[in-house]
Design a protein that fits this description.
Blueprint lengths: L3 E2 L9 E6 L3 H20 L6 E6 L23 H13 L4 E3 L15 E4 L4 H13 L11 E7 L3 E8 L10 H4 L16 H7 L4 H19 L1 E2 L1 E7 L4 E6 L2 H6 L5
Parallel strand pairs: 2-3, 2-5, 3-4, 5-6
Antiparallel strand pairs: 1-8, 6-7, 7-9, 9-10
Helix pairs in contact: 1-2, 1-6
């Protein structure tokens, strides 16, 4: 069985994580990270914990309440600020936020170990994937940077962990496996009601995807290796299928290692 071992840069140190998106998936991911951070501190005597920075320019709407990690009192507030302030207050943390949209092609990733995309736009993933594939800054970037993508549709989703930059023995990221993201046309549709929102996205899909993602991180951080680097979740069929660390599986998707 092929496995992927924890990057040496992640061992026995705080993990610097950049989270892009604080909506349905992002808010659920941050909630799980709050628990993950607490557990990691306890089992490592505070040697390992999560330093998180969140970027999102969106504000909480009434239709977000109940479906995302927000309360009625949060309506009208910035999502990133609301969530980070809440977790900092209750956990005595120093997480950071920016109430702005991150531009993948101009952002400086050098101070991060992991980038997590929790967005519903294919363009963001495509822009990021192109940037990582074509970045030619030589030794001035963090080559060990990992990219964890969490994406979902109405009742299904996928989690893919891979290397951000090109390298030998690369663990492919979401853009490597799905370059067709570049040709997808995003449609901007704000849901005005809970009924309309639930038609577009089933209750529970965000949390299901997030649980798979944070479980993958836990395995890597606690056990030191993983035998799969992603999952495919389907609520309608009640299934979760692993994305194995296997060049043959990658070839099926069109990626040659």
């Amino acid at each position: 069985m092929n496995t992927f071992s924890i990057p040496s840069e992640w061992i026995s140190k705080p993990l610097n994580i950049l989270v892009i998106g604080a909506g349905g998936t992002g808010s659920a991911f941050l909630s799980e990270c709050f628990q993950l951070d607490y557990l990691l501190r306890k089992v490592t005597n505070h040697q390992v914990h999560l330093n998180i920075s969140v970027y999102d320019d969106d504000k909480v709407s009434e239709s977000n309440v109940g479906r995302q990690g927000f309360y009625p009192v949060d309506v009208g507030m910035y999502k990133a600020e609301t969530l980070v302030s809440r977790f900092n207050l209750h956990g005595n943390l120093s997480w950071k936020y920016k109430n702005e949209r991150l531009l993948p092609e101009v952002f400086d990733y050098r101070n991060y170990d992991l980038v997590v995309t929790c967005v519903d736009k294919a363009k963001v993933r495509a822009d990021m994937g192109r940037f990582f594939a074509n970045d030619n800054r030589g030794s001035s970037y963090n080559k060990s940077l990992m990219w964890l993508d969490l994406g979902n549709g109405r009742a299904s989703g996928q989690i893919i962990l891979g290397h951000a930059y090109e390298q030998i023995n690369k663990l492919p990221n979401v853009f490597d496996l799905y370059p067709q993201l570049e040709s997808i046309v995003d449609v901007d549709e704000d849901s005005c009601s809970h009924i309309e929102a639930l038609r577009k996205q089933e209750y529970g899909i965000n949390k299901k995807v997030v649980l798979e993602a944070t479980r993958l991180l836990w395995e890597l951080l606690r056990k030191g290796s993983i035998s799969h680097h992603g999952s495919y979740v389907d609520l309608d069929s009640a299934t979760v299928k692993p994305l194995k660390i296997d060049p043959i599986c990658w070839q099926v998707l069109g990626y040659n290692s």
